Amino acid sequence: QVQLVESGGGSVQPGGSLRLSCVASGFIFANNVMAWFRQAPGKELEFVANLDVHGRITYYHPSVKGRFTISRDNAANTLYLQMNALKAEDTAVYYCRKDTIRGQGTQVTVSS
Known about the structure:
The protein has about 110 residues and is an all-beta fold. It is built from no helices and eleven strands.
């Protein structure tokens, strides 16, 4: 059974940083492209970033490029999202995704 468990969210001021983690189980993590999505209140689910199996090829939503960094540790079955220079518009529930499967999400709130 595929399981994705996100953590690391919280409340920060604009300009702050957070590092999200997603621990995966139930499938061969190292063989799968992984992604982060987010959903802000009242808005649709939005792609944030994804990463190839080797952690070399990445794609980012234009709104986070240069501020967020996606990475993975295949030995630890863990996906990361380093978020710097956070803005109020980054406030959302962040989800780790494998294909169409996602975890329960972790809340990120950016507010002064």
